[in-house]
Please model this.
Amino acid sequence: MQCPVCKDVVLSNETLAEDLLAKACRKCQGRWLPSFHYWKWLDSQGLVLTEKPLERVTNVATNDSGAGKLCPECGHFLRHNKVGHGIDFCLDRCNHCGGVWFDHNEWEILVSRNMHCQVHYIFSAAWQKRIQDEEREMTFEQRVEKIVGKNDYARLKEVARWIAENDHKETLLSYLQNASKA
Ligand SMILES: [Zn+2]
Ligand SMILES: [Zn+2]
Model:
C-alpha cells in the first residue's frame, strides 16, 4: 500500500493505540486507518469519551496535505472534510472502503480532544452542517468584534451573558432599547 501523499513510499504497519492497527508513512508521517480496524477497535473500547474543549496552548503543527488524494486501499478519491470544533485541519475519507487518512499529528490532536472515537461522525451530514452553522456564527461574532474593538467586544459579551442569565431579562432588554432611543 502506497502513501497517498508521497506516492512513492510504501506504508508500514503502525499501532495507533492499543489494538488499533494502522499504516504509516515514514516520509510525511501520515497515517492510513482502514475502516475494518477502526470499527473493530471502536467496538472493543465500548466507552464513550466526552469531547474536551479547545486549549489554545496545545498548538501542535500539522501539514494538511489538501484535497485530491486517492485512496491507498481501493483507488477512489478521498473526501476532504473539515473537523471543526476549533480544529482547523481537514480529514480525508474514502466513501468506498471507509478508510481515513490522517496527516502528521492529526490523529494526536484528535486524541488530545477525545475526538479520535468520533472520526466516523465527522464525515456525517449532520456534523458537517453544524460546522457550517458554527462558521456562520463565528463570522458574525468576528464582525462585531472588528467593529467595536477587542475591549468593548469583551464587555459586550459579558453584558450579554449577564442579561441572558438575569431573572429580569425582558425588562433589561426593553430598558436598553428605550435608552438607545433617548
Ligand atoms: Zn507520505
Ligand atoms: Zn478506499
